[in-house]
């Protein structure tokens, strides 16, 4: 091995130079390797403890391996390749403010949001018929409203200037009364009375319908179990009112009389005959809800043979809603 003479006073300087040269080479190599990568991520400096490359050094006439006598701490530079988290921009919109607030109503259950778009946070929820002060409208079809003391936004499809008709109006006898008890009435109205039939429908219920049903209302009528012999009268009365209901924006369904259990006053054969005539002779604009077939197939529970338990009423109501929703 070729030997170089150096005095011992320069040994420390030489060792420092060797360590510094190693760090520069390492950083330069990393930088060259990443020259084609464009990243806005910060450069992260990791300090690693590494033993410097051994260089043979001579002190006097004695060869001394540097690594055996000196530990050098090297800082290794690495570039982070992690991507920054990207935040999608929110829907852009502009608002035309009204000169004075306008009173409007929600026409369905609807979310209230912090901005005019479904990508903004929800700040609340309103049901059908809530009255609001509207202060403006956006260029993308939303209304600016005052909600719980703050400015918020509701999609324009769910706001109307006049109090809308109740979404669902049920008209019927004791079975309708008991359905109300089972499912509630947050967005529904019930015009019903225990033990009634055709005469009560004609003389009392008909006059009450306009107070609840209007544009956008779905009305479900269910009479007959108490007076199956009045089938012709029911058909005539309903058909004579369908023009007015349709012009008012009401969608009308007739719900088939549903089956009975062990009942002494009426039989399922009589119910089937009633339902058959109603379905075939009602005006075509009146839609049919075949709850009879539904309960016959799925089963029902009744204590007195005529009325059901709450679970059966809830199941029947869900069937009604599934049919109605599928036809919207």
Describe the structure.
This protein has 328 residues and is of the alpha/beta class. It has 3 domains: 8-79, no CATH class; 95-160, SH3 type barrels; 168-326, Rossmann fold (3-Layer(aba) Sandwich), CATH 3.40.50. 33% of the residues lie in helices and 26% in strands. It contains 8 helices and 16 strands. It has a 5-stranded antiparallel sheet, with no helix packed on it. A 5-stranded parallel sheet has the order 13-12-14-15-16, with helices on both faces. α3 links the parallel β12 and β13.
SSE topology:
Layout lengths: L10 H23 L9 E5 L8 E4 L2 E4 H4 L5 E5 L15 E12 L3 E4 L8 E5 L4 E8 L3 E6 L2 E6 L3 E2 L7 E5 L1 H10 L4 E5 L5 H15 L5 E5 L8 H17 L3 E5 L12 H14 L5 E3 L1 H8 L11 H17 L2
Parallel strand pairs: 12-13, 12-14, 14-15, 15-16
Antiparallel strand pairs: 1-4, 2-3, 5-8, 5-11, 6-7, 8-9, 9-10
Helix pairs in contact: 3-8, 5-6
How many separate domains make up the residues? 3
Taken in chain order, the helices and strands follow as HEEEHEEEEEEEEEHEHEHEHEHH
Q: State the CATH superfamily name of the largest domain.
A: SGNH hydrolase
CATH architecture of the largest domain: 3-Layer(aba) Sandwich
What count of helical segments does DSSP give?
8
**Which consecutive residue ranges, at least 5 long each, have pLDDT under 50?**
1-83
Give the integer mean of the pLDDT values: 81
What is the share of helical residues?
25-40%
CATH class of the largest domain: Alpha Beta
End-to-end Cα distance, whole Å, is 95 Å
Helix and strand composition category:
alpha/beta
- C-alpha-based Rg, rounded: 41 Å
Characterize the biggest β-sheet.
5 strands, antiparallel
């Amino acid at each position: 091995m070729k030997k170089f003479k150096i005095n011992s006073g320069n040994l420390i300087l030489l060792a420092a130079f060797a360590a510094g040269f190693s760090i520069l080479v390492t950083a330069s190599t990393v930088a060259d390797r990443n020259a084609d990568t464009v990243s806005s991520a910060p450069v992260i400096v990791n300090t690693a403890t590494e033993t410097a490359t051994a260089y043979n050094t001579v002190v006097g006439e004695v060869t001394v391996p540097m690594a055996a006598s000196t530990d050098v701490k090297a800082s290794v530079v690495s570039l982070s390749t992690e991507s920054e988290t990207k935040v999608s921009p929110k829907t852009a919109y502009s608002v035309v403010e009204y000169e004075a607030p306008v009173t409007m109503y929600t026409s369905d259950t609807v979310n209230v949001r912090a901005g005019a778009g479904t990508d903004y946070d929800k700040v609340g929820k309103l049901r059908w018929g809530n009255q609001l002060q509207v202060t403006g409208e956006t260029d993308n079809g939303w209304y600016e409203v005052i909600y719980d003391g703050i400015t918020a936004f509701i999609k324009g499809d769910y706001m109307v200037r006049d109090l809308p008709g109740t979404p669902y109006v049920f008209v019927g006898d004791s079975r309708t009364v008991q359905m109300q008890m089972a499912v509630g009435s947050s967005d529904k109205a019930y015009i019903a009375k225990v033990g009634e039939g055709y005469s009560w429908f004609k003389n009392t219920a008909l006059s009450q319908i306009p107070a609840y049903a209007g544009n956008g209302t779905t009305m479900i009528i269910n009479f007959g179990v108490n007076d199956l012999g009045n089938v012709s009268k029911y058909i005539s009365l309903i058909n004579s009112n369908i023009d007015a209901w349709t012009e008012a924006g009401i969608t009308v369904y007739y719900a088939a009389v549903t089956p009975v259990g062990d009942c002494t006053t009426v039989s399922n054969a009589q119910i089937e005959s009633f339902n058959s005539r109603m379905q075939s002779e009602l005006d075509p604009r009146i839609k049919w809800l075949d709850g009879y077939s539904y309960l016959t197939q799925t089963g029902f529970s009744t204590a007195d043979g005529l009325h059901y338990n709450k679970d059966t009423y809830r199941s029947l109501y869900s069937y009604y809603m599934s049919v109605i929703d599928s036809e919207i």
